[in-house]
Amino acid sequence: MTSQSPSSGTTPGTSTLTGGLSEKGLSAGSIGLLGATVIGISCIAPAYTLTASLGPTVAAVGTQMPGIFLVGFIPMLLVALGYRELNNAMPDAGTSFTWATRAFGPWLGWMGGWGLIVATVVVLSNLAGVAVDFFYLMLAQLFGNPGLADLTNNVIINVLTCLVFMVAAAYISYRGMETTKAVQYVLVAFQLIVLVWFSVAALTQVAEGTAFDAIALNADWFNPFLTPSFSAFAAGVSLSIFIFWGWDVTLTMNEETKNPKTTPGRAATLTVGIIFALYILVAVATLMFSGIGTGEFGLGNEEIQGNVFAALAGPVMGPFAILMSLAVLSSSAASLQSTFVGPARTMLSMGHYQAFPKRFASISPRYKSPAFATVMAGTVAWGFYAVMRVLSTDVLTDTILTLGMMICFYYGVTAFACVWYFRDSLRGPRAILLKLLAPLVGGVILLVIFATTLYDSMNPDYGSGSNIGGVGLVFILAMVLFIGGIVLMLVQRRVNPAFFQGKTLTKGSSTEHGHVK
Amino acid sequence: MTRVPNYVVAYEATERGNDTIELGVALARLTRSELRLCLVLPHHSSTVPARVGAVSSPDYQALLEAQSLEWLEQGLARVPADVVATTHLLYAESTTEGLLQAARTFDSDRIVVGASRRGLMNRFTIGSVANALLHSSPVPVALAPRGYQAPAQLTRITCAIGTRPGWRALLDSLLAFSEDLTVDLRFVTLVEVDAGRRHPTEESASQSHLAEVLEYFHSRSKAHGAISTEVASGHSVEAAVEALDWQPTEVAFVGSSRLAQPTTIFLGITAHRMLHALPVPLIVVPTGTDARKPH
């Protein structure tokens, strides 16, 4: 009558009850192709992603934007394939941090985890920044008072509003609340509808001759190799990785899908198909409507680059612009809350293996969520945002560029970890392709992009043009984040060397089966 | 396989979780039952639309599970040697769902939860899990007050009984519960009166109702202990509850509302208000319960 199944490796005497669930409590077979695709699109949050990335991408590659979006997907795809192999090999244990530690030892592993945390903390601050802009824009549209939209330019109001959003999102995440399936479907459908509406409205205005700075569609836009310089190309690809960030989630849904053999692959394909179509449509429509000049609504205007839809929704959609505000606000708010999960769990994991102070490993007994780590993620993200808001003339553009670098870094580390971890088990063409070639090529591309953008960002004109002592702010930011990481790593090494001596997590390869405690 | 009488104890590694263990222990001692300490984890999914959620989750889940097992060990250590307890880690959509699932799986007699969140003066306020259970459980739900300590022995059961249809079901449940137990029983009815005015008719109606209750109970009871009745009146349900004397070695029984589905609990308004003033554990019984026998 009782279906107690002793679960593997648990304390004797404790049964793990799972009912209709698999051992780990995943609701097996509950997600179909549509559901998985919705999750994929929801992770990418296209409305937020586009408003944050269109401007910086045009600044980097001009009209080559559609082509760059297409090639930018390639390194993401290659790394994700390798990542999936790691996930399949160690379904119960393993993240960027543990994999990198297993493959390369504690030092690079620590930096891999740090890269992920920094990237997610930076995106948190950018998400909150976009949400703040759209919040005041929406108020202005709602009350027909354009003055309200300007409140976002007041540094103190802006930073405090951001704090409110951050606290709310962190709290929801700490309580372990998740967006329900129905809400996800609605949010995704709404984003898609509004973005298509925006594109159609923009193209209609182009056809009617009322566009701001209409330029004719040119097939060359789709050729990424016409990008003026390799630096521009690298910056574009770095941004493209940001716009597809989150897509890899679809590939890692296994047990939960109705057919684990085919659903994740199909959902990943469908997701990227929809996202491609959407991005190309929006990119082309925006280019044709606005042009790349530096006029009021031109994509080259640094004033609007960090948050393009906030500026363009009005002229393009007229009275319906408020729908765009709602779409971006809802997508960035939902994303803000769910994004907390990433850095908080990674910090918790690092705390557990004593790579971070022990406090980070604390789990709330009531909500079963990483308590201290979530608070820290929120605090640091807000602090980062506040400092950036004061230092930078265009905080959003600069954070997105920094973010692109950080994603390249931790994806790259993960890709090489995959290659190294599987070095002894490359049997058959499939293994060689997925465990060696894909992640290796993906990793090398990311490394090159990372090095190039890092070097270029020293130029004071890079990004928003903010600089300190003639050195580009984006470079300084990246350096502060990396060197800060190294310093913290050394401090932790001094305070508690266990992790760095390989006592908590050992190096190994797929055949050695190093022990993950 | 003979059924072992058992209680599902909703455990979490907090003061509230400790309260539930204490109440579980008290009830287990009284009815010679076993405890099933259950810790419910949200079943994790990659359906959280987080860009890096999936990348950071596997480690986290393993750590969460390890931590939960440690918590369960701590919980088990709080159970005294004279009570048998087992520990169980559950995954479910929600804590409530997990507890109901455990009660079904173990064929449990009751679910014990911590009721109080921030109740004033040792009184009840209902937490969300308890509240959800009170509206859906097919088995009786026992609510532990904040800071509850299990007495060596429970000496009295107070049954709050109304005149509405359904009181027999409550009595049947109490009969089953108290069978062969050495415990005093007290039947009370609560009468709400306007301040400053006497309501002799209502009170005498209550008295005669209690007499009927007593007769029904006496003719069937197999419990050993004194039986008493009492009518409590006050200007509100809360005041009526406070007018009664309550012992630290006592638990209260109450039936669920007529609004409930035949076999599930639905806490009525009166019972809900009672809770706010009650200083002892409360066991809420479904109206149409199949009167589980402790054997």
Automatic annotation (TrEMBL), chain A:
Residue ranges that the Swiss-Prot or TrEMBL entry lists as coiled coil: none
InterPro entries: AA/rel_permease1 (IPR002293), APC_superfamily (IPR050367)
Alphabetical list of Pfam families matching this protein: AA_permease_2
Transmembrane annotation, as ranges: 26-48, 68-86, 107-135, 155-174, 186-205, 225-247, 267-289, 309-329, 369-388, 400-422, 434-455, 467-491
Presence of keyword Cell membrane: yes
Residues covered by region (Disordered): 1-21
Keywords tagged on the record: Cell membrane, Membrane, Transmembrane, Transmembrane helix
Keyword Repeat: no
Topology of the protein relative to the lipid bilayer: Multi-pass membrane protein
Compartment(s) of residence: Cell membrane
PANTHER family: AMINO ACID TRANSPORTER-RELATED, MEMBRANE PROTEIN
Name recorded for this polypeptide: APC family permease
Organism field: Cryobacterium breve
